[in-house]
Request: fold
Amino acid sequence: MKNKTKFFLGVDIGSYYTKAVLINENKEIVAREVTESGLSFEETSEKVLKNICKKYEIKKEDINKMVSTGVGRENFPYKDFTRTEISCLVKGVFHYFKKECTIIDIGGEDVKVVIMDKDGREMNFSMNRKCAAGTGAFLEDISRRLKMGINELHSLAEKAKESIEINSFCTVFAGTEIIHLIREGKKIENIARGVYESLVSRILSMVRINKNLVMTGGVIHHNPIVADILEERMGIKPYVPPEPQFVVAFGASLFALENA
Amino acid sequence: MRPLESTKKLKEILKNYYQELYEASKDENQKVAWCSSIGPAEILVAAGFKVYFPENHGALIGVRRLATKYITRANSIGFSPDICSYLTSDIGAYLLKETPLKDAYGIPEIPKPDILVYSTNQCRELQDWFSFYSREWNVTSYGIFYPWKVDEIGKEYLDTIISQLKSLIKKLEEITGKKFDYDKFKEVIKLSKEASILWRKFLESAKNIPSPITFFDGTIQMAPIVMMRGLKTAKDYYEILLKEVEERVKNKIPAVENEKIRFYWEGMPVWGKLRFFAELFESINSCVVASTYCNSWIIDELSEDEPFESMAECYLKIFINRSENIKEKELLKMVQEYKVDAIIFHDAKTCPYNTNTRFGMPERMREKYGIKALVIYGDLNDLRCFSEEQTKTLIETFAQSFEK
Reply:
């Protein structure tokens, strides 16, 4: 049976992680894979393809079309064509959410915000400027300064009774500010909550939120508190699609299917 | 991008221009004036000065990707990285006693001026840029102060500029020791106008579909209209250039193959990335057909019958010096006339004056007129403010959105 099925692959080569999604002609996800992007996008994307094939017991020749996206989209050796991560993000989100909405995707090194119309077209979009504030790199840097993992930072933030305001303009200065707060004896869980509040403030400065809000990306996948804070601030419960880290790769696989 | 043959001639012209400038700066009997790029060049030319434009020097530093080295040098003596990166590039190069003019045109140093003349119709920074050299060399820095960000043009605005232009002439007479020749002034104004009419025709050739030229051609071809206003050389060159472009139009030769999307570029060029942008737009089957920047040097309403009045009006009403209301109407007109599909706004970190993204303009263009608009972030010279990867993603996504 497997041999008669048509497969389509989307590979999202991001700055931190490479994600791949294999779908069948019914747009069902049949396999997915994630690994650190490392230093060579070529090698990593090949490895991801190999793992997907192994996992689902198929050969790469069994895949009808492959589309790569993300910062390393040009580096995937077996791509049929590329699409940008913003185009794939919209494609992936529209599959799950067919309404006009604001999409916020928080990745390792960038934040993308897109206004999508009811027909799945991006009406306006932007990315963070050359700055890590508001991205996964911000959380990683702060956790490192606090000598803990991101999971621990998240758990602490969930326990907070209040939040301490931390500047959202510069990652380096935010780190310095946090060390100062610790020395002042502020509670670490309140500081942790402040870190997430700061991330949300930065993102809110980038976009006018539509009545429908969709959140995707690795940060929301690993730090669901970000969605909670946004809901508290905006009074809108964000829709988070299944496996939000893979939405862009899924969108790429949909492009592969459509262009088969 | 299909190169224009005339550019070979342009290179010769520029080399001669700089050689003459340098010789004049070393000759006691000749006078050199520095002038801001939309300053009163016609008066300086008519008074017999060789005119040098430091903004062009700034752009050349940008094109040659030397800016970061020079900017940091200027920063070290107190010029902030947040102010104009033409200024910091130029002053940094001066402090390091370097200039790209040496490699490009064979002159060993920037020409020392007898007077520095600037207008405030563009920005605030020129005043302080020229003040630096005024202090360094003990040379007069003379400003023409314009009403700012004007909506409707009033006679009272023009009167204040005209009287300043006339005072400038007195100052120049003191330096040259000669009476200002008003007949020559009229001749210079006429030449400037004629060159400008040709420049307009060159830019307007992009109204054709497919366009025979791109914005990136404009950034190269604009040198004479910036630096040689009032000289016959500029007029003669644009006649040659226009002939070449008209030939392209006649034979339907496009600047980029397979032109599918037509963009308008709002804001400064990223001088160190012209090739990157030209190739990127070509790769997505698009042509940047028009720009605010290149259009800023269309000053074809000059009149030899009313030289002062027409100069005052032309230089007052340049795009950069208008209200948001006028700018909005002007952009809309350009989009319609050039059959533009979308506007790309360049937010240049160190040039707030030539950046029109910071008071909601892209949003208004989208919401009021339904014009697609994209904002990219960068700078004219400081490439530390520019991310090639991010810009590529934004522009490619923008192009992909046209597929739907």
